[in-house]
């Protein structure tokens, strides 16, 4: 099961599933009831696509959306890639307005783990 952290991650999963079904963007758009341009933007990770349309897209593709906790992931898989400290969602969303060179700097900052305080 994929762990999605950004709208770009979700778009990639949707694109991979569409391609696995051998559908083009126009076919997916028709089945979902949206424009091909909407599919293009969603697959690229546009952060402000309508949630109901994303859920409809997942349903059309036969994908499920599951939720869980970071603690549950860490306890079920000791070698999990899930970071102990998640990036701030506002930083991720606001980062979409950056130039490409700024995205790299932001992504590098978000990927760093902060030192844990001793208890």
UniProtKB/TrEMBL annotation:
InterPro entries: Cro/C1-type_HTH, Lambda_DNA-bd_dom_sf, Tscrpt_reg_HipB-like. CDD domains: HTH_XRE. Residues 14-64 form the HTH cro/C1-type domain. GO terms for molecular function: DNA binding. It holds the Pfam family HTH_31. This is Transcriptional regulator. It comes from Stenotrophomonas maltophilia.
